[in-house]
């Protein structure tokens, strides 16, 4: 039984008779191949990538597994359509908080048409793409059983400023996220962004690869950050994840590093590490203010 | 006595009645303040930078010293004009090989006018700026007493392809540079690009700062690489240098890293380190082929 993904935060949704991706119960994600060649390009990327022995194993885990393509009834009722069959990376999370971050200070590439470049450039300048080297393309934030998810609409997301992005990266790892941006406590920052298996370490691992790899240039590609806030607050060992998705505009690197992706990734890393160091500082302050005789641990708790 | 700089490889030259920079014999470089506000912007940058305590000392050495401004007779005969008084970074070198590399995959900035952005974008796409994240804006290569300098003309420089850039970065550190691009031996790579005081280490030091600093965004700024080939071939202790120049388009970082500069810098680093590792490999091969019983030293020589 195919259904509309419950946790899709960006891109076209398979609702109201529109074409969009579907998921099944076995953890697979079916993405319709876009007709203008983009779908075939993405399929070609996955085929090339999965057999490319130059890609190290510790990097491969940041990409969804691809199971080829399959003819399926399209969600818009237009009949049979080729779909890319991918790992449904959200299915292993119960109440996932997800952020879709489109990386790079430009989403266009030199080989594209002038029209396409102008269209992208216009959007890149309107959003934080040019200024930050990345933009948030969508997100959902699990706020608890009562409140459910905070999922800002497309228009709101597209109007995010640098200030908003900074707030959201804090709010994303706060226990009091529903209260509002100003008072975010960032109490989950040490366990989500920090730690040896945290988001920051994963971003740094990816960065090291991008400083070296000259195989692919990832234009208009997104980095998903996802985690279960509930399992974190219960102290369970759920590991926050990052995954790269959307490869319709990947081109050959031809011996040059993907400096556009790398620059944006470094900018995101700086933002994430600032939230993390702020949260550590404030927890040290809390310890001091509470006059506890203990010390602050690495994960920001008082001992 | 002011005179036209002998080793200027890019920008407007003070010849044929044109406005350009001048130098004196005491190691100072006089750059006319451009009338459209750019000159004052550059002066303002130097004033802000020189008093900014957030800039660490080990980074300050990558910038020319600024001695303020001074009214001088302009080189185009138009009368008295304010000039920026800077350290003449070339004066300490005897027969300098110099490369002027404009860093960044865009030379424009969001605050600029649409016209300016379109003009820059067009040039960025035409050169290697977009594809490589940097472009060579000028160079001179000392080839020896007889041949003197190889200094390609402005049009040739502007038409450099990715292939040309790779060749030039090899030729720049070759003892047989006058023979042609294909046979560059890269014999100076270990002593110019490599080593603890070499170009690569300096670029990496600069990179570490750019991963963190959110004070300035350096648009359309150049990185000069300069060294004396003669003193290197004689084994003297002349240290290759890098310096950042041209700050008419620096804007405030406002808490965001300069991902545009950083990405381009990482791309240049990758190119330089490839020349270096190629040169080490080929010298190992030479040692093996010559059947010398020795080993290859770090600077690529057989022992």
Account of the protein in words:
Chain A is an alpha+beta fold and 303 residues long. Chain A has 2 domains: 90 residues, 2-Layer Sandwich (Phosphorylase Kinase, domain 1); 188 residues, Inositol polyphosphate kinase (D-amino Acid Aminotransferase, Chain A, domain 1, 2-Layer Sandwich), CATH 3.30.470.160. Helix content of chain A is 33%, strand content 20%. In chain A, the strands form 3 sheets. Chain A has a 5-stranded antiparallel beta sheet. The first copy, chain A, has a 4-stranded antiparallel beta sheet with strand order 1-2-4-3, covered by helices on one side. A two-stranded antiparallel sheet of chain A has the order 8-11. The longest helix of chain A has 31 residues. The radius of gyration of chain A is 20 Å and the shape is globular. The C terminus of chain A is likely disordered. Chains A and B meet through helix 4 and helix 10 of A and helix 4 and helix 10 of B. Chains A, B: Inositol phosphate kinase with a broad substrate specificity. Chains A, B: One of its GO terms (biological process) is inositol phosphate biosynthetic process. Chains A, B: One of its GO terms (cellular component) is cytoplasm. Chains A, B: Belongs to the inositol phosphokinase (IPK) family.
């Amino acid at each position: 039984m195919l259904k509309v993904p419950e946790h899709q935060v960006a891109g076209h949704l398979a609702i109201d008779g529109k074409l969009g991706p579907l998921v099944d119960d076995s953890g697979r994600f079916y993405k319709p191949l876009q007709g203008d060649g983009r779908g075939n390009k993405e399929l070609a990327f996955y085929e090339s990538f999965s057999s490319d022995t130059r890609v190290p194993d510790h990097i491969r885990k940041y990409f969804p597994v691809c199971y080829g393509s399959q003819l399926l009834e399209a969600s818009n009722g237009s009949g049979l359509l080729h779909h890319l069959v991918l790992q449904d990376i959200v299915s292993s999370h119960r109440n996932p908080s997800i952020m879709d971050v489109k990386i790079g200070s430009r989403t266009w590439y030199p080989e594209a048409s002038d029209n396409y470049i102008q269209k992208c450039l216009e959007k890149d300048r309107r959003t934080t793409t040019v200024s930050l080297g990345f933009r948030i393309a969508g997100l959902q934030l699990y706020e608890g059983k009562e409140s459910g998810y905070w999922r800002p609409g497309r228009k709101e997301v597209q109007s995010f400023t640098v200030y908003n992005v900074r707030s959201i990266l804090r709010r994303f790892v706060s226990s009091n996220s529903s209260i509002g941006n100003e008072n975010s406590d960032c109490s989950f920052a040490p366990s989500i962004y920090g730690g040896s298996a945290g988001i920051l370490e994963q971003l740094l691992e990816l960065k090291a690869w991008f400083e070296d790899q000259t195989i692919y240039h990832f234009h208009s590609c997104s980095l998903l950050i996802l985690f279960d806030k509930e399992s974190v607050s219960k102290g369970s060992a759920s590991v926050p994840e990052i995954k790269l998705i959307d490869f319709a505009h990947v081109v050959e690197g031809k011996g040059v590093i993907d400096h556009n992706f790398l620059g944006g990734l470094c900018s995101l890393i700086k933002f994430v590490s600032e939230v993390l160091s702020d949260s550590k500082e404030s927890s040290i302050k809390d310890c001091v203010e509470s006059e506890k005789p203990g010390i602050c641990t690495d994960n920001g708790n008082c001992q």
